[in-house]
Specification:
Elements (H helix, E strand, L loop, with lengths): L6 E2 L22 E6 L1 H19 L4 E7 L3 H17 L7 E12 L2 E11 L9 E9 L3 H11 L5 E10 L12 E6 L4 E2 L15 E4 L1 H6 L3
Parallel strand pairs: 1-8, 3-4, 3-6, 6-7, 7-8
Antiparallel strand pairs: 2-10, 4-5, 9-10
Bound molecules: 1-O-pyrophosphono-5-O-phosphono-alpha-D-ribofuranose and hypoxanthine.
The site of 1-O-pyrophosphono-5-O-phosphono-alpha-D-ribofuranose has 19 residues, from strand 4, strand 6 and helix 3.
Pfam families: Pribosyltran
Subcellular location: Cytoplasm
Catalytic activity: IMP + diphosphate = hypoxanthine + 5-phospho-alpha-D-ribose 1-diphosphate
Length: 219
């Protein structure tokens, strides 16, 4: 798949007003607008699942979920790949799953210190075709560290699916995943498991947090 195959959300994109969608009451005052509604996210993931299914063919795959932010994308993506497994009589992808917990953000900034907090032993990835499933590539530090870590365990291959990649104003995009849902503007987004100090993971849509939200939940 070409690495530039993603939906680009422009800097002057037209956001969706909060009042046109259902937002939990406890977040109503903390969000600026909706950038990506849940339904659009689902539709895009359906296509990513098809691309992955067609590329992998019937090779066994180990899908690695990067917790916590990746958990919703991971479950929705795998649901859609396994639906293809059921409906395509001739081809199916055998899948095993692993989890890695990484953490580096405090408030809306990367600390630069990528901590592996827990998860499965990476030694089980030896000789496997690995699909890393991540929610967002922002500075790219997490992915760079993770890929270096994975290589130490001699997987047969590593591909990366990230739902979002951020266009940062302070640096060009240096790393592009094999599969990407959306390239987004340089705004701090929350929802669909993306958090601000652990809040907003329980919001379905991907939204831009406002100053009130940052202040209310800051550490
Ligand atoms: O490209 P980067 O600037 O490194 O940012 C991306 C990472 O930041 C977030 O993780 P976080 O450390 O917030 O942990 P979380 O997944 O538990 O929210 C996100 O889930 C990515 O893993
Ligand atoms: O914009 C973001 N939102 C939530 N978590 C993140 N981790 C890196 N960038 C982001």
């Amino acid at each position: 798949m070409p690495t530039d195959s993603y939906i680009k959300v422009n800097d002057d994109y037209i956001s969706y007003p909060l009042e046109h969608f259902c937002i939990p009451k406890h977040y109503e005052d903390d969000l600026e607008a909706i950038m990506l509604p849940w339904g659009l996210i689902q539709d895009r993931i359906e296509r990513l699942a098809r691309d992955i299914f067609q590329d992998v063919k019937d090779q066994p795959l180990t899908a690695v979920c990067i917790l916590k932010g990746g958990y919703r994308f991971f479950t929705d993506l795998l649901d859609k790949v396994t639906a293809l497994n059921r409906s395509h009589g001739q081809v199916s992808v055998p899948i095993t799953i692993d989890f890695i917990r990484l953490k580096s953000y405090s408030n809306d900034s990367s600390t630069g210190d990528i901590e592996v907090i827990g998860g499965d032993s990476l030694s089980s990835l030896k000789g496997r075709n690995v699909l890393v499933v991540e929610d967002i590539i922002d500075t790219g530090r997490t992915m760079t560290s993770l890929l270096a870590l994975l290589q130490k365990h001699n997987p047969a291959s590593v591909r990366v699916a990230s739902l979002l990649i951020k266009r940062r104003s302070d640096q060009p995009i240096r790393y592009r995943p094999d599969y990407c849902g959306f390239e987004i503007p340089d705004r701090f987004v929350v929802g669909y498991a993306l958090d601000y100090n652990e809040y907003f993971r329980d919001l379905n849509h991907i939204c831009v947090i406002n100053d009130n939200g940052k202040e209310k939940y800051k550490q």
